[in-house]
Amino acid sequence: MSEDKALFSKKNIKLLTDPLNDNNPITVQVLGICSALAITVQLKPAIVMAVAVMFVLIFSNLIISLLRNLIPNRIRIIVQLLVVAALVIIVDQILKAYAFDVSKQLSVFVGLIITNCIIMGRLEAFALGNKPWASVLDAIGNSGGYAIILIIVAFFRELLGSGKLMGYEILGHKAKTIAESTGLYHYGYQNNGFMLLSPMALIVLGIVIWVQRSKNRKLIEQH
Amino acid sequence: MNTNSNSYTFIFAIVLVTVVAGLLAFTAIKLKPKQEENVRNEKMQSILTSIGVEESREHSGKVFDKFIKEQIALKSDGTVDMEVDAFTINLKNEIKKDPNQQRYPLYIADNDGKKMYIIPLFGKGLWDDIWGYIALGEDKNTIIGAVFDHKGETPGLGAEIRESWFEEQFTGKKIFTKPNDFTTNNFVCVHTVKGGAKAGDEHGVDAISGGTVTSNKLSQMIEERMKHYLPYFQKNK
After folding, report:
1. Predicted model pTM
2. Helices then strands, each counted (H, E), chain B
3. pLDDT, tens digit, for every residue of A69-113?
4. Where along chain B do its domains lie?
5. What ipTM score was computed for the predicted complex, to two decimals?
6. Which residues from A are below 8 Å from B31, CB to CB?
């Protein structure tokens, strides 16, 4: 049995780790930007979204990979879309019945998951041409990379935009007057409301890309 | 098997669509009872929260009747329509009807001997639906509590109407300028004030910074819904 066929061979491990940094879906492949801007206002929804995307990506990658030799080439995009949409709706229905509170948080984002370019992108670029196990690993890797970026951006946006993390007040409590406020607000600190708006999300993302490219030799373009 | 032939493509598409449709229909039908129960319990939980009774969603269903003594559907003239079950009124559809045709649900509660009136609210926020419940005390003037929710307002901005810091502001505010006079000229309702309500303002609460449109639409929703209950209050002084 060749080393390549092992479950966690070097090649397979690379599928897991590449998308975390060298081939990050958001910062390098430039996919999934819309949701990276939309739900990173707070940390908690960002984490819920990352988990949901991971779930959908793993299963749709698996299903498409299993069907890859049966799908007619002309309708492959529509078939991918159908599988992803059906998966998301089924997940949403199950949540509405058995995890009602989670489904309420997700309700706004259900549409965002279906149209998330990362999912369609990976189905087209990988699952259609690779075996099931490799596709599952690719899904885990890419959703992991997506989650990392989402968490970083949401961390800064929630902290600097509303002084909280996961809903908990980190920088003190802002009362009506400075005298009554605690923590940093007592010294006149104000939340940066601009952080809660999309343009700032794009700028934070740009800074993340900048830092990543400076630190990661492989991403520096040779002219 | 040529996967690119026309006939194969057709057959594949038909089979896939049938399988997916069947799967979705099966899932929806199987899960519907549990989903509807969750929605009912959540409605009960919101109504109880507005009068200060905090319960888990499952438990709310069990204690609801202990607190809510009457559920009535009012006509636009303030009389009770005995044929309609107030709890089943779907406000989203109801508000599309002509105001004279609508039925206005009202929940009358007894919490620790005190009588309370809970008015359901529904309206359009900035992006999608917003709704809630406002509870008035025995004087039908002072607000005991308010609960709001939304479908798609912006997180961190309009979505803050759900947070307790926003809802708690309403407690103690009044909707009439004089007590015991439930006519329209006396009805000022309660509003969100951009930049913050002045201290001592009995009819104003702070709007949400960055969420002005949602805050304004919330105020409009409260006023639009509450004004339909004035005839009933006036009749049952």
Report:
1. 0.75
2. 6, 7
3. 999 999 999 999 999 999 988 888 888 898 888 787 777 677 778
4. 69-235
5. 0.75
6. 93-94, 96-97
